[in-house]
Structure formats: structure tokens, C-alpha cells
Amino acid sequence: MHLDHSHPHAGATVGADAHRPDGTRRALRIGLGGPVGSGKTATVAALCRTLREELSLAVVTNDIYTREDAEFLLREAVLPPERITAVETGACPHTAIRDDISANLEAVEDLEDEVGPLDIVLVESGGDNLTATFSKGLVDAQIFVIDVAGGDDIPRKGGPGVTTADLLVVNKTDLAPYVGSDLGRMAADAKTARGEMPVVFQSLRSEAGVTEVALWVRAQLAAWTA
Ligand SMILES: Nc1nc2c(ncn2[C@@H]2O[C@H](COP(=O)(O)OP(=O)(O)OP(=O)(O)O)[C@@H](O)[C@H]2O)c(=O)[nH]1
């Protein structure tokens, strides 16, 4: 189930310089943030599986003290190991993606140098609260992932992630009947909070899986390379 694809190209604004020092175009950088356990890593894994044959991809993960998200992606072999880098933030992940972005920028640039040229780098934030947003100096577009089990009032309560992310993903729709979440209400509240900005409802347990988000990512890349 998805909603409001009337503006598939909303997003991808040029934040940092679009070129590498040698003059070639750098990869499009897409950030994924959201609360703990909403499905960020699972979405990154599914995007890699869907897009890896057609695009040159890499992933940067952020965890506070561990490399768990990167280890999951390595174990699942969603990409060759040299294309996955873990940043240990040692503090709130949102500091590393919003305030002191140097470690993430270095990780992205190292990946481009070592395995490039790359089409897309996915930068996953460690699970954080609803205020976690990425610096425009780090990513060109951001996806905010919430899930239906976290409470169907999250779109209404908002927060910068929900209201300003280029794409809002409401994940785990398969669980809605079990946790009593009202998807219609979530959709209406998301519309109120976001206006014309896109929202995708997905279940990674369904056959459609990450298809809609992958379409959005392809549209961002098309706009970036145009
Ligand atoms: N039922 C269901 N479970 C899901 C779905 N997506 C992810 N999960 C499960 O939810 C759990 C958390 O998913 P993760 O991808 O690790 O979540 P995360 O946002 O990366 O978590 P942190 O990195 O700890 O913040 C895992 O057990 C996933 O398998 C979904 O669409 N439906």
C-alpha cells in the first residue's frame, strides 16, 4: 500500500558539493533515520538486494558503541564487505549525522575512493528519537522510517523526522491488526503533517517489500544525475 506519489522527485537537493576533487560526479547520499527498531537496517538490506544488480551501492552505518547494523548487513551479504562501513558514534547517533558529521563524511569519501565510482551511498543512523535528522552537508535526501508498532499517533505528534524528511516510510504494516494501529488515521495524520511530501506504507514481510521505496530512490538518482 502506498500513498501520494504525486511528487516523486521531491527531495534530492544538492547539499554539499556534487563533485569529487577529480571533477567526477560523486554518489547520491541518502540518509535513513528513525526510532529504534523501526526497520532501518531491514530497509537498507532490502534496498541493497533490489538495486545492487543495476547500481553501484555502498552503505555507512552508525551505532553508538557497536557495529551491529554493519555486522547484520555483512552476515546477510547484501553487498560485498568492502562496500559496508561502520561508524561508531560513541554518543547520540543524531550528533554524528547532524552536528559533527566529520566521521560520516570521511567514511563516505573513503568508500568512494576505495570502491568507487558509486551511484548511491546509503547512510543509516542508529535508532534515535523523532528529532533525528541529517545535516544537508552529509546527505542529499533523507528517509525517515517509523513503524506501526511504535504507535499510530506518531505521524500526528510529528517531530522534525516525520515532518521534514524527503520520504516518510511507515513500516511493518503487517503488524497493524495485532497492535491495533489504524493505518487510515496514520495516513491522514501524515498528510496533515507533510502536505504533498511522499509517504510510503510498507511491510518488508510482504511480497511487494521495499519496491515503492526503491522506486523513490531511483527517482532521486535520476534527478541527481540529470
Ligand atoms: N513484522 C515485520 N517485522 C519487520 C519489518 N521490518 C523489519 N522488521 C523486524 O523488526 C526488527 C527491527 O528491524 P531493524 O531493521 O533491525 O530496525 P532498525 O530500525 O535498524 O533498528 P536499530 O538499528 O536498532 O534502531 C527486526 O527483527 C526486523 O526483522 C516488517 O515490515 N514487518
From TrEMBL:
Q: Where is the CobW/HypB/UreG nucleotide-binding domain?
A: 30-200
Looking at the UniProt record for this protein, which Gene Ontology cellular component terms does it annotate, in alphabetical order? cytoplasm
On whether Coiled coil is a keyword of this UniProt record, the answer is no
Question: Which intervals of the chain are annotated as region Disordered?
Answer: 1-20
Q: Which GO terms describe its molecular function?
A: GTP binding; GTPase activity; nickel cation binding
Q: Which domain of life is it from?
A: Bacteria
The family database entries (Pfam families) matched by this protein are listed as: cobW
> What's the chief localization of this chain?
cytoplasm
Q: Where are the transmembrane segments?
A: none
- List keywords of the entry alphabetically: Chaperone, Cytoplasm, GTP-binding, Nickel insertion, Nucleotide-binding
Residues holding GTP:
G34, P35, V36, G37, S38, G39, K40, T41
- Location of the protein in the cell: Cytoplasm
What InterPro entries does the record tag this protein with?
A: CobW/HypB/UreG_nucleotide-bd, P-loop_NTPase, UreG
Q: What task does this protein carry out?
A: Facilitates the functional incorporation of the urease nickel metallocenter. This process requires GTP hydrolysis, probably effectuated by UreG.
Q: How does it assemble?
A: Homodimer. UreD, UreF and UreG form a complex that acts as a GTP-hydrolysis-dependent molecular chaperone, activating the urease apoprotein by helping to assemble the nickel containing metallocenter of UreC. The UreE protein probably delivers the nickel.
NCBIfam families tied to this protein: ureG
Family, as annotated = Belongs to the SIMIBI class G3E GTPase family. UreG subfamily.
Official protein name in the record: Urease accessory protein UreG
Source species: Streptomyces lacrimifluminis
- Give the taxonomic lineage as stored in the record: Bacteria, Bacillati, Actinomycetota, Actinomycetes, Kitasatosporales
Record gene name: ureG
